[in-house]
From TrEMBL:
It is found in: Cytoplasm. The keyword Disulfide bond does not apply. It holds the Pfam family TsaE. SUPFAM superfamilies: P-loop containing nucleoside triphosphate hydrolases (SSF52540). Keywords: ATP-binding, Cytoplasm, Magnesium, Metal-binding, Nucleotide-binding, tRNA processing. One of its GO terms (biological process) is tRNA threonylcarbamoyladenosine modification. The keyword Magnesium applies. This is tRNA threonylcarbamoyladenosine biosynthesis protein TsaE. Belongs to the TsaE family. One of its GO terms (cellular component) is cytoplasm. One of its GO terms (molecular function) is metal ion binding. It comes from the Bacteria.
């Protein structure tokens, strides 16, 4: 379990205060989520840190796969849940590597043991569930990073009273394509003093 304190639905930690700007984007389905990954990749470069948050089924893997494609990363991108960290190499000499980390099941000491700082300058680093954990370990309070939260309607409920018992596991077209959701993007530090172009 992460060392970050829960701050909202699905145990999502509250955003770090002090962002330079915040943008909320409506995403109709997983295609829109993928498009956001591709467009954001155009603004990223080696040394950039992206903190990615969202509950189960929010689209984190879809987003990261498209981000990787936009960066020119080779190979299949999957969730690093069981290995905690994966390095995906850029396909060509001009392409940056992608370091993909899942910090959900670790704490500050475990995160430091992953030695992500060793690859930070040469890679784009995406840390799922890294809020309040990755920032102090990798960039400090005066550093720069992007925070992206994918929010589904289910995760916006007001608490335990909204829980629903699911007994029908058949997939509908909406399940396959993904329901509408939104993304909240926040920029921190001098690198992200102004927002990137997020138009899809």
């Amino acid at each position: 379990m992460s060392g970050a304190a829960p701050g909202g639905a699905d145990g999502v930690p509250a955003p770090v205060p002090g962002e330079a700007w915040t943008r909320r984007l409506e995403l109709q389905d997983l295609d829109d989520t993928a498009a956001l990954g591709r467009v954001l990749a155009k603004s990223l470069r080696a040394g950039d840190l992206l903190i990615l948050t969202g509950g189960l089924g929010a689209g984190k893997t879809t987003f990261t796969q498209s981000l990787a494609a936009g960066l020119g990363v080779e190979g299949q991108i999957s969730s690093p849940t069981f290995v905690l960290s994966r390095i995906h190499r850029g396909a060509g000499p001009a392409d940056v590597d992608l370091v993909h980390v899942d910090a959900y099941r670790t704490d500050a000491a475990g995160f430091e043991d992953l030695d992500i700082a060793a690859t930070l300058r040469e890679s784009v680093t995406v840390v799922e569930w890294g809020r309040n954990l990755a920032e102090p370990a990798l960039v400090s309070e005066s550093g720069s990073w992007l925070d992206l939260e994918l929010v589904t309607p289910e995760s916006e409920g007001s608490g335990e009273g909204d829980a629903e018992i699911i007994t029908d596991f058949s997939e509908t077209e909406e399940d396959v394509r993904g329901a509408a959701r939104h993304a909240v993007v926040r920029g921190y530090g001098p690198r992200w003093s102004t927002p990137p172009d997020l138009r899809r």
